[in-house]
Amino acid sequence: MVEIEAYAENSPPVITAEDLAQDHDREMERLAEAMRDLSAQEMMDLVHRRMSFFLCAPCYQAWIENPA
Length: 68
Prior knowledge:
The chain is an alpha+beta fold. Helices cover 47% and strands 18% of the residues. The chain has four helices and two strands. The chain has a two-stranded antiparallel sheet.
């Protein structure tokens, strides 16, 4: 079995003076609008995903040599 866990980048963002000068209310509205049609699962998938694959021995050998 192969298990893969992927996480979105979680290092602290670099905040500039330009970022601080933005209209934050408008930016929050833009983000909310962008997420409006996403399901809860789709939003969670943007930051974390876990998958399990049950592979036979030959498939596992092929995958482990070239996982991409």
